[in-house]
Design goal:
This protein is of the alpha/beta class. The chain is about 35% helix and about 30% strand. The termini are close together.
Length: about 400
């Protein structure tokens, strides 16, 4: 296995410039979730004529599955990379900035796709020396529920697959390091929209109106007590009101207010508790203020659970590979964002791990920030780390 891995690393080194060029092209031409048609075409075209099987439109959308059959019998592994962008106007000062107004790769999915394409092509070259098979999941729509992974799974992308692995590059973690965490690694999520309706009127005569803004403000304040008074301090959860739309004139009492936000939890047992308390508070406040409401509360991504055995395999594989660009493998703890990789982890023992992408001494811009950037050295680290995991997994005793 070591000789094959060294050969893979050698080819990857020779294709570093190509990997970066691919990432920059995707970065300049981002597409939103469920709209990534041109990106999907580029990915599919890349594999044309190569010794692999390519299936497009997996899940009825833009999903792509690439199957690489090894020359020897063995296990069946899947590795996943997502490729959708975000509705953000880019402010990062890079020569390859987004050319699409209001759309940006602000989460690193362009990098995921670029490293995975070059890695997959390299593994194809050495497939006769590989035991088992490798399925590459090029997944769309990670950012927007219901997520692209769910439809791909329902379409059978995990058929005959034993385990799944994925990487996320992280602008908040130091480049040159690989990070792992067993167990709950990403939060579960729910989203909500609330429309509260009172009675509009003149600001000088509040007694003749019924102020929805006052009721909504009470709810915004009270809903935080779910976390502070209904959830154990040893548990992790958040309720966020991300939008409060009650715009009007200074002397007018608004009739309606619309709120939107999300809920995160690190334990699925908290999900029904939070929803129950949310609904109870909303109903009680609206009753107290004499207003009505319409609630749209959607539970989506589950808590992402890393299988301890697969996580240990990742850490040991990367450490044993002694990748020159990797300074170490470290524990990172759970991450508060949510990930639709969680659906793969529900179906198969899986591991989702992280590659640092922040250059020490430079400003840190978090994911989904308009100035988000990555140190492109992370692409090669991701490719070599995943290669070490794939070969260690397929060639383990």
């Amino acid at each position: 296995m070591e000789s094959v891995l060294e050969d893979v690393y050698h080819v990857l080194n020779e294709r570093k410039a190509e990997m970066i060029a691919l990432r920059r092209d995707f970065h300049q031409h981002p597409e939103l979730s469920f709209q990534e048609t041109e990106t999907a075409k580029k990915i599919a075209a890349f594999y044309e004529g190569k010794d692999c099987t390519v299936t497009t439109h997996v899940g009825g959308g833009n999903g792509i599955v690439v199957d690489i059959q090894g020359g020897k019998p063995g296990k069946h592994i899947a590795i996943r990379a997502d490729f959708d962008a975000l509705p953000i106007q880019e402010e990062a000062e890079v020569p390859f900035a987004s050319e699409v107004p209001g759309v940006m790769h602000a989460c690193g999915h362009d990098g995921h796709t670029a490293y995975m394409m070059i890695l997959a092509d390299t593994l194809i070259q050495f497939k006769d020396q590989i035991a088992g098979s490798i399925r590459v999941l090029h997944q769309p729509a990670e950012e927007v529920a219901p997520g692209g992974s769910k439809a791909m799974i329902e379409a059978g992308c995990l058929a005959d697959i034993d385990n799944v692995f994925g990487i996320h590059v992280m602008s908040t973690m130091e480049v040159g390091k690989v990070y792992v965490h067993p167990g709950a690694v990403h939060t579960g999520r729910a989203t909500f929209k609330v429309k509260m309706t009172g009675k509009g009127g003149h600001g000088s005569a509040p007694q003749d109106a019924n102020d929805a803004i006052v009721a909504a403000a009470q709810f915004v304040s009270s809903v935080q007590t779910i976390i502070s008074r209904r959830i154990s301090p040893f548990d992790s959860a958040t309720v966020t009101i991300g939008s409060f739309d009650g715009k009007g004139s200074a002397n007018v009492i608004n009739e309606t207010v619309e709120l939107a936000g999300d809920v995160r939890m690190m334990d699925e047992a908290l999900r029904p508790i939070i929803e129950q308390e949310f609904r109870r508070l909303l109903a009680g406040i609206c009753e107290a203020f004499g207003i009505t409401y319409v609630l749209d509360y959607q539970n989506d991504y589950p808590v992402c659970m890393n299988d301890p055995e697969m996580t240990q395999l990742v850490a040991q594989a990367v450490e044993h590979a002694a990748i020159p660009e990797v300074a170490g493998v470290e524990a990172c703890g759970p991450q508060t964002a949510s990930e639709d990789f969680s659906y793969y982890a529900l179906e198969r023992p899986s591991c989702f791990f992280f590659v640092g992408a922040h250059t020490p001494g430079t400003p840190i811009y978090p994911h989904h920030n308009p100035k988000f950037t990555i140190d492109e050295d992370c692409l090669m680290i991701a490719a070599k780390s995943m290669a070490s995991v794939v070969l260690a997994y397929l060639h383990q005793d």
